[in-house]
């Protein structure tokens, strides 16, 4: 039982700092999303395409979380967005204090949309509030249509599901209808976008929705 107590204390401390992050985001009038997925679902590809499409309309800044390397931050930086890399050195999720420390390297007053790309992992990131307005879960069609049932906490705590790699559907045993039904069984309120970062399908809808969220925060 002491393990449970320690875990609870860790989460309480995390949540207190997450609340302070949320206050900073409100003061800067920016929209913050916490993007989560398994490794390889395409979080960074989605981010690249999003930055590209919102250029000139929405000022995007990025916090990149990775277990090792700054490869993803280099990719994002090449698209022209301010980015700060958090290397967790084996840690399998981001925590609010890590994000708070990273914010010091970004100009929040010059940011409309803050994207926090979490470490690739569908388990513990579900439990850690970072101060975001919403969690966005990215799921690729290659992962199968039963994933929402296997990782329910993540889908319950997310507000948005982006199904990526829909261009591969003809070659996969993934039933997109079943995938979305499974996701809605866990969380009926989940907003779903179907995209391909390879063909560009669905990305305009996704970016229009993001731009509308930003406009609502800034209004
Ligand atoms: Mg990444
Ligand atoms: Zn973890």
Which key features would you list for this structure?
219 residues, alpha/beta, Rossmann fold, 8 helices, 7 strands, 41% helix, binds magnesium ion, binds zinc ion
Quick synopsis:
The chain has 219 residues and is an alpha/beta fold.
Describe the protein in words.
This protein has 219 residues and is α/β, with parallel strands linked by helices. The chain has a single domain (2-218), classed as Rossmann fold (3-Layer(aba) Sandwich), CATH 3.40.50.300. Helix content is 41%, strand content 18%. It is built from eight helices and seven strands, in the order αβαβαβαββααβαβα. It has helices at residues 2-27, 43-54, 71-77, 96-103, 147-150, 152-157, 176-186, 203-218, and strands spanning 31-36, 60-66, 83-87, 113-117, 134-140, 160-164, 191-194. It has a seven-stranded parallel β-sheet, sandwiched between helices. Helix 1 packs parallel to helix 4 and helix 2 crosses helix 8. The radius of gyration is 17 Å and the shape is globular. The site of zinc ion (ZN) has 4 residues, from loops. The site of zinc ion has 4 residues, from loops.
Q: Order of strands across the biggest sheet?
A: 3-2-4-1-5-6-7
Class by alpha and beta content: alpha/beta
The CATH topology corresponds to Rossmann fold
Q: For this entry, what is the oligomeric state of its chains?
A: single chain
End-to-end distance, in Å? 47 Å
Report the principal-axis shape. Answer: globular
Estimated radius of gyration: 17 Å
Under the CATH scheme, the architecture is: 3-Layer(aba) Sandwich
Number of DSSP helical runs: 8
Low-confidence stretches: none
CATH superfamily: P-loop containing nucleotide triphosphate hydrolases
Number of discrete domains: 1
Beta fraction: 15-25%
Molecules bound to protein: magnesium ion, zinc ion
Helix content estimate: 40-55%
Mean pLDDT across every amino acid position:
96
User: What summary fits the major beta sheet?
Assistant: 7 strands, parallel
Spell the H/E element sequence: HEHEHEHEEHHEHEH
Please give the CATH class: Alpha Beta
